[in-house]
């Protein structure tokens, strides 16, 4: 078998990550036709069909699923070899909202490091509002946050759904004020929840204010209060109690990636970050 073509393998991996020829072409700054030609060249070289494509869906074939991890390793090794020739390290500051950060964060950072070993990432964890302010002031170069208010910029990474969660033994009696736990400072989702309670005429009281998500999670898990959580980040052992206690539904939001980075290498790193985030969410949803 002849040597693999790096551009062809990159095309295949990008299609696999984004599950779209259109988005893959945009990410690589080329056309769908060029992407298709590169994929066909790789498939011919390997003697296997790697991508199955229909008008409604793009997915890995059985052979493609076997090859994709090795293909990523191949690209990472290529990038490390090229990076070894340069002593220049680049860096950018990445903000990740603490109430968005989940188990996928180590995977995302590991994928970024494998993609570009010359890139030093300075990670800042904070709430979305503070990170948006820091981004607007130019203090950070990119941010993964929950969309706030009517702000419409940013690349959508995934939808975010919310619920009212409490321990199975949590008791809320009719006529009593609903006991709430919340982060301090409060986030935008908490404000939305409070407005929803007020609109529904449900009395509430904040009985527990915590300085970190783990503190609030512990309070809810202990049955001291209820709280609003992303459905994917609710504390283990808690249950969604909106129907049980007649609590109002909460509108969904979006997780978005904001960036001011313009150089090609940094933007490619961000595309890798976005693809890894979507891939992880697809596997865990």
From TrEMBL:
One of its GO terms (molecular function) is DNA binding. Coiled coil: none annotated. It holds the Pfam family LysR_substrate. The keyword Transcription applies. Residues 4-61 form the HTH lysR-type domain. It comes from the Bacteria. Belongs to the LysR transcriptional regulatory family. NodD regulates the expression of the nodABCFE genes which encode other nodulation proteins. NodD is also a negative regulator of its own expression. Binds flavonoids as inducers. This is LysR family transcriptional regulator. The lineage of its organism: Bacteria, Pseudomonadati, Pseudomonadota, Alphaproteobacteria, Hyphomicrobiales.
């Amino acid at each position: 078998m002849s040597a693999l073509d790096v551009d062809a393998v990159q095309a295949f991996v990008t299609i696999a990550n984004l599950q779209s020829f259109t988005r893959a072409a945009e990410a690589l700054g080329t056309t769908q036709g060029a992407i298709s030609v590169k994929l066909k060249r790789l498939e011919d070289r390997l003697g296997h069909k790697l991508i199955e494509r229909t008008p409604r869906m793009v997915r890995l074939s059985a052979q493609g699923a076997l090859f994709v991890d090795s293909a990523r390793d191949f690209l990472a090794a290529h990038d490390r070899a090229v990076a070894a020739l340069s002593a220049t390290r680049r860096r950018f500051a990445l903000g990740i909202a603490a109430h968005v950060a989940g188990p996928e964060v180590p995977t995302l950072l590991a994928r970024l490091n494998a993609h570009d070993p010359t890139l030093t990432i300075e990670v800042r964890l904070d709430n979305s509002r503070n990170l948006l302010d820091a981004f607007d002031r130019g203090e950070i170069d990119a941010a993964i946050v929950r969309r706030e208010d009517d702000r419409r910029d940013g690349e959508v990474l995934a939808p975010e759904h919310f619920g009212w969660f409490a321990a199975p033994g949590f008791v809320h009696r009719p006529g009593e004020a609903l006991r709430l736990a919340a982060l301090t400072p409060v986030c935008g989702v908490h404000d939305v929840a409070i407005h929803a309670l007020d609109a529904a005429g449900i009395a509430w009281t904040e009985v527990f204010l915590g300085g970190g998500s783990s503190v609030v999670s512990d309070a809810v898990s202990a049955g001291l209060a209820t709280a609003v959580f992303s459905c994917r980040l609710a504390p283990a052992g808690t249950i969604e109690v909106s129907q049980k206690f007649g609590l109002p539904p909460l509108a969904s939001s979006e997780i978005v990636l904001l960036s001011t980075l313009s150089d090609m290498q940094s933007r490619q790193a961000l595309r890798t970050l976005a693809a890894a985030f979507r891939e992880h969410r697809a596997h865990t949803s």
